[in-house]
Amino acid sequence: MWSVQNNQTSTTKKITVNFSIDKHLYEQFKSFDCNVDIYDPWIDKDHAYKEYNIKLIDKPKTHYYDAIVLAVSHDKFKALSEKQIRAYGKDKHILYDIKYLLKSSESDGRL
Q1: Is the pLDDT assigned to residue 102 strictly greater than 90?
Q2: Higher pLDDT pick, 11 / 108
């Protein structure tokens, strides 16, 4: 999962995303002056840092993110319900499902 924080506004914007590291996606978020946290329990943290200069988080925070992006379809994430995933977001957040893990009615957007 990713956490993205937009530094251009007085309001903090954070996104959490689960994904296999996609350097292009990461750089797109960074190009909008966002801070990005990434959570993927299958990726070796040391390798991610050495290979991509990206630090992964140990676990996403609850009630913390402005947006959640689901970008891999690991069984661990498939086992989570919409409610469990949305628990990582603030009261007002966006849930974007790139991998179609949820029903279309359960996410705010898809590719």
Answers
A1: yes
A2: 108
Q: Map out the domains of the chain as residue ranges.
A: 2-110
For residue 101, the surrounding DSSP H or E stretch is none
HSE, side-chain direction, 13 A CA sphere, residue 70: 32
Read off the pTM. 0.77
> Pairing relation of β-strands 2-6 and 34-39?
antiparallel
Instruction: Name the token pair of 73.
Output: 């379809």
Q: Tell me what percent of the chain is helix, strand and coil, each rounded to the nearest 5.
A: 25, 30, 45
Please write the tens of the pLDDT for every residue from 67-84: 888 888 888 889 999 999
Q: Among 3.40.190.10, 3.40.50.11540, 3.20.20.70, 3.40.50.720, name the CATH number for the domain at 2-110.
A: 3.40.50.720
**Which three-class secondary structure state does DSSP give residue 85?**
helix
